[in-house]
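Intended use. Records like the one below are meant for learning the mapping from a protein sequence to its folded structure. Do not use them to infer anything beyond what is encoded.
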Amino acid sequence: MRAARIGILGLGTVGCGTVNVLRRNGEEIARRAGRAIRVIQASVRDLSKTRACPVDDIALIQDPVEIVSNPDIDVVVELIGGYHPARELVLQAIVARKHVVTANKAMIAVHGNEIFTAAQEQGVTVAFEAAVGGGIPIIKAIREGLSGNCIEWLAGIINGTGNFILTEMRDKGRAFDEVLADAQRLGYAEADPRLDIEGIDAAHKLTILASIAFGIPLQFDKAYTEGITEITLADVMYAEELGYRIKHLGIARRADGGVELRVHPTLIPQRRLIANVDGIMNAVLVKGDALGPTLYYGAGAGAEPTASAIVADLVDVVRTLTTDPTNRVPHLAFQPDALSDVHILPMAEVETSYYLRMNALDRPGVLAEVAQLLANFNISIEAVIQKEPAEGEDRVPLIMLTHRVVEKNMNSALEKIEALDSIGGKVIRLRLEHLHSDWK
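Structure written out for the chain above:
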C-alpha cells in the first residue's frame, strides 16, 4: 500500500518535531497505521533558514495555498496558529477533500463549529489532539476512553507559562513581574505574553474540552476568563499558610441551569494531586459518573511532546482513509445532530468558595463588622487569619476563606465591605475549589 502523503503548513518548532518523530519512529508508526506516513511538502516563510529537521526530501514552498490545493497531498497538517489565515487554509483543504490535523486551539475554539460542519459535508476528518495539553492525549481520553461516562466536571492546568510563574512565586518567593521576565528569557512566554497570563489561551483549550465532555457547541465567547496578573506574592504565601495552592485553572462543570465555563486563579487544597503539578507541566482532572475522577498529566508544550499528539492524529486519520465517513469518531465526541445547546452560566450565577484579603484598621470590632456584612448575604466564614500590624502602621492584612456562595451575592457583599471606613482599598478576591470526587 502506498504511503500517506502529508503537507505541513508551517515548519517551525512543532513542524520540525513532527518530521523528526515520523523519521525516527517511522517503522513503528507504519505498523500502527497500516501504511507509511511521509511528509512530502511544507510551507515556510524563509526558504534559506536552517531547520531543526532534515528537509532533503521535503519540497519547501512559501505559498501554503499550493499545499492545500496539491492533488498529491492526502493530509494537511496546519501549524501556522492563530485565526487567520489558518481558518481559510483549513476550509480550502476541506473543500479539496483533504483530511486535516491541527494544533491550533484558537482556530478550533472560535471557528470549530464552522470547520467541523464543512468537514462533515465533505466526508473528511479534522483531528486536533495537539490543540489541548500538548502531548497529553486528553481529547482522545474524553472522546473515546470515557464515552461510557456522563462527564460531571473537569478542571485543568492547561497553560504551562502561567503554571511556571505561579510555581516560581511559591517556591522561590519571587514577584510576578520578575518571574514573567524569566519565563520570556527561557522561551516559556512570548514577547507579548497576554494570551498566557490573561487566561485567553486556557479559555481556548477549555472551550474545546467542555464541548467534547458535554456534547455542546464550541462557545469561546461565553467562557469567563480571568488572568494571573493581579496575583501577589502575599496571596501565594497566605494560601500556603492556609493549606492551599494557587493554580490557574480552567473549570467546566454541569450545574443546575446549565454549564459552568470559567478560567481563573483558584485555591486548591495542597493534598490534591493537581495542586502538586508544577513548572511548565499540564494536568487535567476529569470526573465521570462511572469511573470517578481521573488525572491526565504531562508536557503541555514543546516540539516533540506536541509532535507526539500530531503523529497520533496522523495515525488515526491514515487509518480512516478507506473508512466509511459515517462510521468515524465524531469530531466533538457526540454525533453532529445530537449536540445540545445547553445554557452557559454567567459568572454571577456560579457557586464557589472564596479567599478574601483586605487591608483593615487595627481596631476592635472590624472583623465582626465584616463578618456581619457577609452574613447579610448568606456567606459563612470557614477560616480567618489576622496579622499583626507592621511598626508604625494602623492597618493589618485580614484574610478569610468562605464557604460556597453564588458569585452575585459575593459581589454585593464586597461592594458593601469596600465602602467601610475601616477597610482600605479593594478587597482581593480569589475563588477556591476543593475538587471533591462528590462535587456535583
